[in-house]
What does this fold into?
Amino acid sequence: MAHTGRRGHRNRPGGHSKPKTPKPRTPKPRTPKPKTQKPTTRQRTRRQTTRHALRREVPSTVALLADERDFAAMRHYASFTFDDHGAYLREMEGLLKAFAAKGVHTTVALFDPVAYEEFCADTRLDPDTAASRTRYTAELAVAGGTVIYEGQPIARLVPRLIGVAEEQATWEYATALLSRAGHLGECRDDTTARAAFDHAGAALRAVVEAAGPGIHHLVCSVPADGTSLVAVLHADAREAGPPKLAEPSGLVFRTVLACGFALRSPGGLVLRTIVADSPETVRGWALHDGWLRPLSEAEVFTAYCTDAETGEPIPPEHGVEYRAGIPLSRPE
It folds into this structure.
């Protein structure tokens, strides 16, 4: 007889299986966690000593707002919390002394708010953060134009820093003009930018060698592109051997002089020589046809004793002799 109801669970194969007996669990051995031991006083002292030693191996760069107007411009940023320029300079001097006391090599750069704003715009950085200011400071260190801090007072450091910054700006501008002169063909083939720079180096050596022993102070002035490029260089020729030229001032001087040669500019070079137990002497040359033409004694006197702005005569310096420039052999 057919069964029409649902088949129950008990009618399934294996439906009457025995209940499973749970297996006893074997507890896993616990590995004790190592206890964190606090460093001993000796270990902490050793770490601090190591960090101090490493700190002396890492140089530092400090960007200084030397001008009060530049300082005032930075006060527009909320993250710049200084409000007194004098106090700011004193704190900076204290920071520099602290670095020096720890043996840290420190260079100082001039902080330019205008250049900083342009830097932040180019790099898409927020100018109102300390991080952006430190990034700009790092870029200044790479570009050059810094002064090594050697314990000098801030009153002596600031003028030197301004002078180095101006020298850097002069070199950059003169380099751009010299490059443009070479690429645009503004001069003959024998006075391209490279040739002009080589001639400038030869002219500088010729002037210093012709002047003889002593301490020489050279000034080169070149009107170019609506402005006046001025470079200053000190040369020490008191000892035997080649004169010692101050660098990077020597590079700036050669670049400005090369600009005058390449651009055919009516510039000039003046040399003041100091020798022990002798009066100071002043000589001069005019830039002419890619070389230096010696000025006469009267031309040197007129150039030194005439106000460049008003044209009025200026009394000659006491104890200074004005002499004609020395003829210099032009290189082949």
